């Protein structure tokens, strides 16, 4: 099992959804984590609603800091385009996905970002295998 990490500033939207998709589609191959450089302490209700539409309960997740994630070597550390570099994270590979912050978006636009995250996670999982 390979560890992957998704990082965003608040750990309340993009990184949480990426973690969920990695756990859904890579459950036998990866262990996914998410964190934030300045976590909000809560998951955005819009993210919970967007994932609920796909049958995933994101309300079971929690917003956490980089200090709260397992201190392991990650296969990939993925930032979401929020300027976080995560210099203290031990990772073989690093990527920045440059995704827009969906926080203030209407549901239709929010879901486009969600779907882009899903597609990128699926591509990442293909590369890992």
TrEMBL record:
Pfam families reported for this sequence: LMWPc
UniProt keyword list: Arsenical resistance, Oxidoreductase
Domain of life assignment: Bacteria
Listed EC numbers: 1.20.4.4
Phosphotyrosine protein phosphatase I domain location: 2-127
InterPro entries the record matches: Ptyr_pPase, Ptyr_pPase_sf
GO molecular function: arsenate reductase (thioredoxin) activity
Entry annotated with the keyword Oxidoreductase: yes
Signal peptide stretch: none
Name of the protein described by the UniProt record: Arsenate reductase ArsC
